[in-house]
Amino acid sequence: MKKIRMTNDDVNKWLNYKNNYKVQPTNDQIDLIVQLHAKYFNHNEYYPCTCSPKTWNQWIAQLDTVYNETRNSTQT
Questions:
Q1: Structure confidence by residue, pLDDT tens digits, 19-36
Q2: What is the pTM of this model?
Q3: Domain ranges of the chain
Q4: How far apart, in whole angstroms, are the C-alpha atoms of residue 39 and residue 9?
């Protein structure tokens, strides 16, 4: 299975998000999560319900995996 890699611009955006992490994300951070997840997991942009953090946490974890794989592949 082909590994997903973030662009340098997206790596920088995600790093900025991680460095400014808050339990309650800002609207800009929510937009970033939605946009990047749609881009890297090949689906239309949509905003999951905020009534349950399950999907949001899953998306953040998946984006962290892509980010980490991208960073690891550029360091070798």
A1: 998 888 899 999 999 999
A2: 0.90
A3: 8-75
A4: 13
